[in-house]
Amino acid sequence: MHALVVLSHPDPESLSHAIAGRLGNGLIESGADNTFEIADLHAEGFDPRYSFGDRAAHHHTAQPPADVLAEQARIERADALVLVFPVYWWSMPALLKGWIDRVFANGWAYDDTGAKVVKKLGNLPIHLIGIGGADAGTYERHGYFAAMKTQIDHGIFDYCGAPVVTSELLLESDGQEQAANLAAAHAIGTGIFRSEIQRDDVSVA
Question: Residue 123 is part of which domain span?
Fold first, then answer.
């Protein structure tokens, strides 16, 4: 089984990078045939700007841009998609959001016919790992947990029919001691292909 881990953080020495690595280690340890690839959007120079070409593809008047097709193919090779990102303003960084804006396109992630929306990613399990600086009490008190689930889990992935299997926030990331968050990332990795929802078990909605 193969996982695509999409990472959005500019510093290769960041906690986000360390968490992605520990998650990958857990995934490998959970099965001899398991593999993963890290898509480091900053290092790869992905352009998050929604272009005229993206708009034309949305309206089915042109083929999607080549970089979008390459990202879609990379997702299609995966049995699970994992997003690792720091929390910016109750959501994900602009680079990752732009990746979703461009890659999860009409005609590929869903079909909007005008009369109805056909969800096309019912066979793609999603695992979300957000990394936040505040503590759990702050997130709960201000409604961050619910807001992020509404924006991301429901607003993006449910719209495409992709089942969100994991939706975790690893918090207090500004502290000196991060052993607990790294251990949590490792545990998430070991469970990715032990989940009840797998590509072969989920039919397209």
Answer: 2-201
